[in-house]
Amino acid sequence: MHMTSVVLLLLLITAVAGPAARLLRLPLPLLLIACGIVASLLGFHIDFEPETFLLLFIPPLLFSDAYLMPLHNFRELRWPILLLAVGLVIFSTIIGGYFIHWLLPMVPLAAAFALAAILSPTDAVAVGGMIDEERVPRRFLHILQGEALLNDASGLVCFKFAVAASLTGTFSVMHASLGFVLVAVGGILIGMALTFGFNFINRILSRHGFDEPTTQITLMTLLPFAAYLLAEHLEASGILAAVSAGLSLNQSRVFGSAQTATRLRGSAVWEMITFVFNGLVFLLLGLQLPDIAAQGISTANQAGDSTWSLIGTIVLLTSMLLLLRLVWVFLISSTRYLIAKLRGHKTGRVSVTETAAMTIGGVRGAVTLAGILSLPIAENGLPAFPMRDLLVTFAAGVIMTSLLIAALVLPPLSRSLRHDGGDPVNREADEARRLLALEAIAEMERQSALVTKRLDENTAQQRAEVTAALIAEYRFRLRLLEDAPNDKLKAEEYQSPDALHRDTALARRRFEAALRLHLLRTERKALARMRQEGQVSDEIERLLTHDLDLEETALSGSARALPRHLHYTDGPKMCSPLIYTG
């Protein structure tokens, strides 16, 4: 099959798997892996090149996660994230390496360290596909995302040192530590430097009028690949360079002052890239599993071990990683609790449920597979990596086992996680909207006082009427936001006449937004019918459809900006906006 047909088929499977996972109520990563396994068993094979895989998939995905990472939360949780992303990786590599060598004496110690190192990175994407992110605490998600963002780099760096030690037969703790720092710092600096250059070029283009959204988005899409390639060429960490570029771009807020079209199109482009690449990663994993399993079983049988013994070893390795992670998470939470107590801060202990969820959430994924498959093979007279096929089988087995455990245990476990009352994101957003409304009202009052002095009476009256209407609109929005309930209070405390009046007004506003959206969709259908009947040309239809789309986007944003919750529990309720589906 031609490569073009292969790529198109993979994209089709990825696209269809999304709605199929919702219909079957299965985690999307597991469904894609299953699709890959079935395709492989039906004779569909792809030559997997780990270096190409790392270049094509990992940099944009990590860059996207870093660019979208909430920096405020990242700074607040920096110590738990760093202790998990770096400390746990080193802890797992050392303890896990000795455990693997003890469990499998035929595996050299350096090779055991290499396997333990490549098993240490986690995959937050897989976890995100198994839980409802709207129903779990944001802190839990931010820690998992931040850990996965950074431990890929630390795990791969440890892996490279272990592989080099296995091939050369020499290892120095001092040399490895110094090399780790140089590789990490080099990658971070390269990512920051390229982001600075991107921002500089973007400002020059914008200053001279070359600020087309397509140009800016294309340059941004190429940035993670440029950071990765340059860092790898200079023997630094390409993954850390891509992460650093995303975080630097996030910090600089270069698109904060960009055109509206650039922000909207850029968001759409990155959403598509993230969805497609995440899907392809797990699909390719499924395609490789049958061949990996066959090679591993053959190698184990040649060594005198049965298939069941191989499965038992994989289960033991997975249990060892879970135990090490559990111990590390418990040590971090206990240490933070003791430090807070010594400083006199009020803090609660991390519950058993939260500790278990954080432990199970350490799922292994794409980086582990790509790294283990990059082990040298026998070619051009060079020897293969010791026990390569067996190590690849163990890594693939641990990936599948961790995914299955997470798919079975994590969803019910995450639903019982402790919440801090309501959605903190919605509360913070409502408070920000309240402050923005106050700023807008103050600006209109200031402008009204300045402008009316310079205009004739008729024009001044017209502008005063318009300004008064807008101020009334903003004050109504402000009243809705200022009366927003505290989620920790009981619902019956909101049965006062003022609260019921607010709820009625809020329901009316939602109904109005729903009706406006329904009418816009009615107009769009009528426009399509007019084109079919020849009343308007294709060009006019595209122009008016674009205008309707922009108006619908604005209306949808206004509807989302309304407070989320109604207070009353009795009495008539206005219909939901969902009654109009277009």
Number of separate helices: 21
Q: Give me the secondary-structure category.
A: mainly alpha
Number of strands: 0
| Strand composition percent | under 5%
Give a summary of the structure in a few sentences.
This protein is mainly alpha-helical.
Secondary-structure map:
Elements: H1 3-24, H2 28-41, H3 50-56, H4 58-68, H5 71-76, H6 78-103, H7 109-118, H8 124-128, H9 138-168, H10 173-207, H11 213-233, H12 238-252, H13 260-302, H14 307-342, H15 352-360, H16 366-373, H17 388-415, H18 424-451, H19 457-482, H20 497-532, H21 538-560
Helix pairs in contact: 1-2, 1-13, 2-13, 3-16, 4-12, 6-7, 6-9, 6-14, 7-9, 9-10, 9-12, 10-11, 10-12, 11-12, 11-13, 13-17, 14-15, 14-17, 15-17, 16-17, 18-19, 20-21
Describe the structure.
The chain has 582 residues and is mostly helical. The chain is 76% helix and 0% strand. The chain contains 21 helices and no strands. The chain is globular and about 95 Å long.
Key terms:
582 residues; mainly alpha; 76% helix; disordered C terminus
